[in-house]
Amino acid sequence: MITANEFANELQKPAPESASFRMATVTEIDNGEVFLTFYGELTQREKSYKRLSSYTPAVNDTVICAKLNNTYTILGRVV
Predict the structure, then answer these.
(1) What does the alpha-carbon distance between residue 76 and residue 61 come to, in Å, rounded to a whole number?
(2) Which of 18, 23, 27, 60 is the 20 to 30 Å CA partner of 34?
(3) Residue 23 falls within a domain, yes or no?
(4) Which neighbouring-strand residues pair with 2?
(5) Mean pLDDT of all residues in 18-41
(6) What's the rounded Cα separation, in Å, for the pair 67 and 60?
């Protein structure tokens, strides 16, 4: 059980960020770094993105990405 004050404090905390997913195309692989162009965008992002170890990237792959800690992580290839 929690007190009324503890409950009120919990209500004051921001809601956790909901999951966010985006589709992208692998547009470049340079020394193991993967660069993406997200759907709806015309140019490749300047930063590289991390990926799950189970996914081996290839240029022109369509991938699904999840937003984690204010950046996207590549989950895998969409077939």
Answers:
(1) 9
(2) 18
(3) yes
(4) none
(5) 94
(6) 21
For residue 65, list its beta bridge partners: 22, 74
Is the Cβ–Cβ distance between 60 and 26 less than 8 Å? yes
For the stretch 34-62, pLDDT in tens is 999 999 999 999 999 999 999 999 999 99
CATH code for position 53: 2.40.50.140
Indicate whether 58 belongs to any domain.
yes
Instruction: List beta partners, residue 71.
Output: 68
Tokens 């960020």 — which residue? 17
Number of domains in the chain: 1
Pairing of strands 33-38, 21-30: antiparallel
Looking at the domain assignment, is residue 67 inside a domain? yes
Residue 29, pLDDT > 80, answer yes
